[in-house]
Structure formats: C-alpha cells, structure tokens
Amino acid sequence: MQILILVFKIIVISLVIGLVVISLGNITFNKKIEEEVNQLFVDNYKSSWHINEHELKSLPEPVQKWLRYSGVNGSKKIYSVRLKQEGMIRTEKDQPWMSARAEQYFTVDKPGFVWKVKVRMAPFLYFNGRDRYYKGKGNMLIKLMALVPVVNAEGKEIDQGTLLRYLGEIVWFPQAALSNYIEWEEVDSNSARAIMSYGGLSASAIFNFNHKGEVISYTCKRYMSRAGGATLEDYLVLVEDYKDRGGFKIPTRAEAIWRLDTGDFSYYKFKVTDIEYNKLTIY
Fold first, then answer.
1. Which residues contact 123 (CB under 8 A, 6 or more apart)?
2. Phi and psi dihedrals of 248, rounded to 5?
3. Which candidate, 268, 279, 196, places its Cα nearest to that of 239?
4. What's the sign of the alpha-carbon dihedral 163, 164, 166, 170?
5. Neighbours of 82 (CB within 10 A)
6. What is the pLDDT of residue 19?
7. Which of 239, 130, 115, 85 is nearest to 174 (CA)?
8. Nearest alpha carbon to residue 252 among 225, 272, 236, 233
9. Across the chain, what does the average pLDDT equal?
10. TM segments (predicted)?
C-alpha cells in the first residue's frame, strides 16, 4: 500500500511540474509575441487624413470598383489592424484537420504583420505557431506545447512568402491597395496584377473580382516550405462572405490552397471573427 501511495504521489507531482512547465512556456511564448507586436507598432505612422475619390483614379478599373465597394472612398486612413481567426488547419494533404485559433496584427505605412496561432492536435496536445513580416524580412516559428522548437525558418524564400502573404491579406484593410509600395496593372475587366516592392524584394499576384467588385480569389507563385527545401508553387486563396466590419465591407471567410503537381492541397480554412482598426495595443 505504501508503494502505491508513493507511486501516486510521484505521478501527481510529475503532472503538477508538467503543467507548471507548460504554463511557463505559454507565458514566455506569448510575451515574445507581445514584444514583437509592440515593436511592429512603435514606429508606425499615424494619420488623420481621409481617402478621396481622386486617389482612386489612377488605379485599374476593377481595383477602383473593389475599393468603392469596400467603402474606402471618404474613409479615414488606416495605419494598423488587428484581427482574430478561427478555423481548421493541416500540415499534410493526407493528414486530418486540426482546430486553430489565431490573432494577427498589421501595420500599413510600413508594411508588416505578426500572426500567432494555437493548433489543437489532440486532447491535451497542441502546437503554437508564429509568422512574422518585419522590415521586409520574414520568420516562421513553431513550438510544440509552446516549449519544444520544431521550426524556426528564415531566409529569402520566407521573405518572399511573407511579403506575398501580406499582399494577399490587404483584402481585410483594402486602403493598403493605395500604398506606394504596391503597383497595379490591369489584366482584364475582372482581374488585376499587384506588384509589391519593399525591403529590397518584389513579388506579384493576381487579384480576381466578381461583378459586384468583391475580391473572390488571389493567386501567385509562392515558396512552399518542405523538408527537402522550399519549392516555388502555385498558391491560391479563395475569399467570400463579405460583411460590414469596422466601416468596411470585407470577406470574412477564406481558404488557402497549394496547387501542386500532385493535386490541390487545401491546408487552412478559417473565418475572421473580429477585426479592429487603428488600435496600437494588443488584445
């Protein structure tokens, strides 16, 4: 009996220590994110001027239609964005979907973002992820249980991927389409090419629109991180379910898809559950 009691005490103590370690890991991870968000926001330019119709005239017609539909004309200049997401994610085509909750922070005058996600792999098992685009450089960080490093990737391929990610995600703050680091070229009446140049790097993507002026998809050539090294692949994001949020009409659902030689790999489906503009503090 004494041996059983001793074993029980050891198990309880081990569980308590494990919970404390995991808790400290989460605190440390979230503190790092907070510091990065504050760094992103600290030198962000604030402006009180408003967008006017004249600023839209130089853009391709489908882009003008999108910005008018979104409510950009006459709106106050956006300099920061923060949003929340809920969805499902997977890391391989043949793996099951996992639930995910994310928060993301953007700046506009100097383009950048911090995205953090918590992915539930199984009961009591999860990983934390963080993507960062800051001063033209990208970084991808993944930690199991916020403790064990799994990925800490950077380099020119990550820089390109995060730049293109930022470009595609301006659908949530369409005023950024007017930024001096983005140039537009009309492809046809329902699509336009956006070229983003920042931090010594340029990349382009095609925005596709419907008859109402909504962006419905975004396509580009983007580097995909793989075990054997990054490869340049076709990348597609579908967006839908437009709603009025914070004074703008924006899509609230999206699906990210790699278009590979072996077939489409849909890896992230999500909805935007909350969005706020021009708040230079974190949640």
1. none
2. -125, 150
3. 268
4. positive
5. 22
6. 43
7. 239
8. 272
9. 89
10. 6-29
Protein fold of 2-277: outer membrane lipoprotein receptor (LolB), chain A (2.50.20)
- CA-based torsion, 180, 185, 191, 195: positive or negative: negative
Instruction: Identify the band that residue 51 occupies on the pLDDT scale cut at 50, 70 and 90.
Output: confident
- 158, two tokens: 């990550």
Give me the residue label for tokens 């999860």.
Answer: 126
Strand positions, DSSP E, the chain: 80-89, 98-107, 112-122, 125-134, 137-144, 148-153, 182-188, 191-198, 201-209, 215-224, 231-245, 248-260, 263-277
Q: Coil, helix or strand for 219?
A: strand
Angstrom distance (rounded) from CA 37 to CA 194: 26
Q: Please, which pLDDT band fits residue 138 given cuts at 50, 70 and 90?
A: very high
Looking at residue 175, what DSSP letter applies?
G
| Whether 75 contacts 50, CB under 8 Å | yes
Condensed to tens digits (0 to 9), the pLDDT of residues 158-214 reads: 999 999 999 999 999 999 999 999 999 999 999 999 999 999 999 999 999 999 999
Write down the domain spans for the chain. Answer: 2-277
pTM of the model: 0.90
Q: Which amino acid is at 2?
A: Q
Q: Give the other-Cβ count within 10 Å of 71's Cβ.
A: 17
